[in-house]
Design a protein that fits this description.
Blueprint (H helix, E strand, L loop, with lengths): L12 E5 L11 H9 L2 E4 L2 H11 L5 E3 L5 H13 L4 E4 L12 H9 L3 E5 L4 H9 L6 E6 L4 H10 L6 E6 L4 H12 L4 E6 L7 E6 H9 L9 E5 L13 H11 L4 H12 L3 H13 L2
Parallel strand pairs: 1-4, 1-5, 2-3, 2-4, 6-7
Antiparallel strand pairs: 7-10, 8-9, 8-10
Helix pairs in contact: 3-4, 6-7, 7-8, 9-10, 10-11
Length: 290
């Protein structure tokens, strides 16, 4: 098989091939063709991938390429590629390199001047985002959070005021703790979506404010099984009274009883450190009954 754009080259191409995340019908026709035509498939777990290859009747040999051998063994694949063999890289599910091995091999291949060709397909974060109903024009993928609560909360703190939609992968046995920490750091009202078992029989896409989503998962042990993606709406600037905080509101209210609006806003700003214009606007809205 000749790599597109590499017809005169004697070097093989590295194909990065997405495989299904549950539903085998999501295997693309192009992925099947590439996997049949290459000389070798570099797979995260050869036993796991062998079953997939048997299902599709693909006889191509498999070789292990996982996080423990990728750096060292990568050179073996590079040697094959330089000798003219086409190689496909797959992971256990979805798109390689996305919270999966492959980064070092792709880097090594590109550094050696080997053409790297993506064969796109299923990816859990994109599947979840496409159906979650949260803003999708800008988002960030945070991968897996640390397993322990202290580390997890520290990471969540870093993205607390991130305005783009946040996407996380999480293991089922940690999903409840994860949602508890998210509720604590992001607040109970932040909209969130749990994407569970996507493309599979018990697919769930549940969208609720974080406190309700946590309660939903807590109250149903089935929701603590299977594979999950958590999406959280990005931070948005609080508006109206919420913008100034409870203490500033209390001070402003007290002063408004004693003096004119403009003076109350100025004095409340001096006392609380909150911007005068913001306090003035809140006081004005209050006066208008907004
Ligand atoms: N490379 C994969 C991809 O493209 O999405 C991700 C591999 S990562 C090791 C596995 C994690 O992806 C799971 O723990 C889960 O967070 C997410 N995931 C994979 N399949 C999923 C599915 N069918 N539904 C929901 N999440 C899934």
């Amino acid at each position: 098989m000749t790599a597109p754009g590499a017809s005169n080259s004697t070097t093989g191409a590295l194909y990065v091939v997405a495989t299904p995340i549950g539903n085998l019908d999501d295997m693309s026709a192009r992925a099947l063709k590439v996997l049949r035509d290459v000389s070798l498939i570099a797979a995260e777990d050869t036993r796991h991938s062998l079953r997939l290859m048997q299902h599709f009747g693909i006889p191509t040999p498999l070789a292990a390429c996982h996080e423990h051998n990728e750096r060292e063994e990568g050179s073996r694949f590079i040697t094959r590629l330089l000798a003219g063999d086409n190689v496909a890289l797959i992971s256990d599910a979805g798109t390689p390199l996305i919270s999966d091995p492959g980064y070092h091999l792709v880097r090594q291949a590109r550094a050696a001047g080997i053409q790297v060709i993506p064969v796109p397909g299923a990816c859990a974060l994109i599947a979840a985002l496409s159906a979650a109903g949260l803003p999708s024009d800008r988002f960030i993928f945070e991968g897996f959070l640390p397993a322990k609560s202290v580390g997890r909360k520290a990471r969540l703190e870093l993205v607390k005021e991130e305005p783009r939609t946040l996407i996380f992968y999480e293991a089922p046995h940690r999903i409840l703790e994860c949602l508890q920490d998210m509720e604590e750091i992001f607040g109970p009202d932040r909209p969130a979506v749990l994407g569970r078992e996507l493309t599979k029989t018990f697919e769930t896409l549940k969208g609720l404010p974080l406190s309700e989503l946590r309660a939903f998962v807590e109250g149903d042990s089935n929701q603590q099984r299977g594979e999950c993606v958590v999406l959280v709406a990005g931070w948005s600037e609080p508006e109206g009274e919420d913008a100034i905080g409870a203490e500033a509101r209390r001070v402003l209210d007290l002063l408004l009883e004693e003096m004119p609006l403009k003076r109350a806003a100025a004095l409340a700003a001096e006392i609380t450190g909150v911007r005068k214009n913001l306090l003035y606007q809140v006081a004005l809205d209050k006066q208008k009954g907004v």
